[in-house]
Amino acid sequence: MEVANARTVLKRKRNDAVESFENGTYAAASVDLSLLEAVEKSQTAVEVLDLKTLKKLVLAFERRLRDNIEARLKYPDQPDKFADSEIELHEEIQRLKTLAGGPELYPDLVNLNVIPSILGLLSHDNVDIAVDVVGLLQDLTDEDVLEDNDEPARVLVDALIENNVLELLVQNLARLSESDPDEMAAVYATLATIENLIEVKPAVAEMVCERTKLMRWLLGKVKVREFDGNKQYASEILAILLQNSAANQRRLGQMNGVDVVLQAVAMYKSRDPKTADEEEMVENLFDCLCCLLMPLENKERFVRAEGVELMIIIMKQKKLAYGSAIRALDFAMTKYPPACERFVDVLGLKTAFAAFMDIPMSKKNKKERYQEELEERVISLISSLFGGILRGSRRDRLLSKFVENECEKIDRLMELYIRYSDRVKAETERMNQLELDDLEMDEDERYNRRLESGLYTLQLIAIILSHLWSSENSRMQARIELLLKQQRITKEDIKDILQEYHDNIGDVDGPEEKERAQAKIQKFISAF
User: Fold this and answer.
1) Do residues 222 and 184 lie in contact, with contact meaning Cβ atoms separated by under 8 Å?
2) pTM of the entire predicted model
3) Which of 389, 292, 278 is nearest to 343 (CA)?
4) Which of 140, 226, 249, 302 sits in a 20 to 30 Å window from 68, CA-based?
5) In 358-403, which residue ranges form alpha helices assigned H by DSSP?
6) How many whole angstroms separate alpha carbon 105 and alpha carbon 432?
7) Tens digit of pLDDT for each residue in 85-117?
8) Are the C-beta atoms of 184 and 130 separated by less than 8 Å?
């Protein structure tokens, strides 16, 4: 009750000051107008931001902080007695924001040992003071402010982390009420500060999840049905935390994160987002889902939570999330046979091959590159199906898709083969020309550039063709041979693509897995 009273008094005093100035009552109180003019002139003069100014600002802040602590200790049950000191402390915190104009002074700020005092205010009994500090931290760590100031930025961020900024920010986040506009803005500023810290020091992404309950708070936020700016930002921060951290991916999976993110995207299975911000949030949520689907144990959770069925429903609806659902399925089925088997069991083949034959044009995104990305995802998805379903009736159902309607899907596959092959050839010729112009490239760079131009998708198409050929189905083999002959493509061309893929298989999953994968490709080469 005392804290609530203190906040009310502080807000009332601030508002009274503004109103009295607007109503002209300051002049009526016989204030010396010449004195007011002098003050006004002094405020318009721009003070040079240097070490001397920094020390003055810090000293004034420390003095106001001490006054506030003393007033609160002396009159703990009388908010009116310490409200003035709180207003003065608020004003000093606002003045500290000018330091964002001189990031080169951050090492001096740290050396003055004021960081612990500033961060201590995140636990202040008056939430308004904590809100002020959050705003200050956001300003000091702003990306535009820290640009070209790498070393001062690192010094500040290291000092903040050493003084428990992550723990204090997240603890304060838990007590902010988004029904209050100031506190709602402080939630956004808190997330912005955490993003800024990660930008300077990427290791913060794992630190903040190890040391605080931020992930649980973010999950709670994206779970809420109503959309607002903070929900959108929460989805973005969650995606940032997951994108390069297997530890965070596993951690969120253990918190029932797969199920929560599936519930969040399920809201858009049959409707499109209403605004550009909401659309961005949906993309962020699918980014989170795809990152979550990297560890094997989360793929299992995805299948158990009926994620495969949900993605098929989203694809059938052909709304904005259509492409994102294909991407999520591709992540789920890569090197995980149970997801592939579930996909076939719940009649996903019809939906997948409908997309393979004709990628639907997005109403909101008609860019050619968007269509190509979807095409590449569907090819990858079909390749994953062949890799995950090796025998039995499911395999027969998959293969039969390429025989129906007079082998139209083999025709489509060959059409894609030619398109991607031409694209890779064009990139190879372009690189050869660059080398003639004395721009040297090593083999790795050449290979990566060819991968980006479509070589990886071409390799997947060659692998799918190999699965079809190795099935020893006479109709499929005859169709492939006919199309190769018509397009003047030889089996050697396909074998060359497979050989290059074979030679570049990495050992990320261990030497045994590499050997197994290479043996499989070698078998395809021999079959041709």
Assistant:
1) no
2) 0.85
3) 389
4) 140
5) 368-388, 392-400
6) 50
7) 899 999 999 999 999 999 999 999 999 999 999
8) no
Q: What is the 8-class DSSP label of residue 411? A: H
C-alpha torsion 322→308→387→298, nearest 10:
110
List the structure tokens of 244. 């390069």
What's the one-letter identity of residue 313?
I
Secondary structure class of 70 (helix, strand, coil): helix
Summarize pLDDT for 462-512 with one digit per residue, the tens.
Answer: 999 999 999 989 999 999 999 999 999 999 999 999 999 999 988 888 888
**Closest by Cα among 152, 194, 161, 193 to 54:** 152
What is the identity of the amino acid at 300?
Answer: E
- Phi (first) and psi of residue 234, to 5 degrees: -60, -40
Which single residue is written with the structure tokens 């000093």? 92
The whole-angstrom separation of Cα 173 and Cα 193 is: 12
CB atoms within 10 A of CB 264: 25
CA gyration radius for the chain?
31
Nearest to 353 by CA among 405, 310, 392: 405
* Size of the chain in residues: 528
Closest by Cα among 217, 282, 227 to 252 = 217
